[in-house]
Amino acid sequence: MASAIDKTALRDAATIIVLRRGDVPSVLMGQRGAAAAFMPSKFVFPGGAVDAVDRTVPLHPMTDDTAVALRTESHLPPEALAAAAIRELWEETGHVLGHPQPWLDAPQGWRGFAATGHVPDASRLRYFFRAVTPQGRPRRFDARFFLADAADLATDPDDFSRAEDELSLLQWVPLAQARTFDLPFITEVVLAELMAHLAEPDAPLSVPFFRNDDEAHLVSRLGGARLI
Asked: 23 with 160: CB under 8 angstroms?
């Protein structure tokens, strides 16, 4: 289905929410630099723009329902969006969401990931949220948020030694404390959705879409009715 959003003003992006379950559920976050053009000094989930090379990488396949949901109002292949989320997680945190498999011909941008002995694995990703940056911002993104479980990481969740320097203060933030951090508004919305998901984890897949394309900042469920 073609999107009504003006794609010329937006870059497609992917964000990944890694949830660490247990007695104190927490999410992986880091702080953007004070000089960053987009969301300076804010605590965010790992994520960034989809690169052209993300369309070409081998990917352990995602579930059918996730792939179908990603195609809704999108011109990008679902695999490119999932790959971008996994790449950004690797670059910004040093963590691998991958399937053990030799990858000898990895393209530039993926060679460090491939050197760990993995190909990206989208099989445990859940498409969780979608948001469009409001007009008037210096950069605008059409971002798809994925939910992953820390138990599925191929790396030690507490080891950030291979992270690049785009995010500082990488840490597992307890959900109960997350809103005390300096967060973008949309991150607060996503966290509220995550809390609702944890309260009802077996609810059917339903993806909120924060469109930001009208005065009411319409929020809808993809394929469903208006929420706000």
From this structure: no
Q: What is the pLDDT of residue 31?
A: 96
Contact assessment for residue 44 and residue 184, using Cβ atoms and an 8 Å cutoff: yes
pLDDT of residue 10: 85
How far apart are alpha carbons 194 and 103 in whole angstroms? 34
Do 43 and 188 form a contact (C-beta atoms < 8 A)? no
Locate 197 and state its tokens. 């998901």
The residue type of 186 is I
Asked whether 109 and 90 are in contact (CB, 8 A), the reply is no
The low-confidence residues of the chain, meaning pLDDT below 50, are 1-8, 215-217, 224-228
What local confidence, expressed as pLDDT, does residue 116 receive?
97
Burial letters 133-166, b for 16+ CB under 10 A, else e: beeeeeebbbbbbbbbebeebebeeeebeebeee
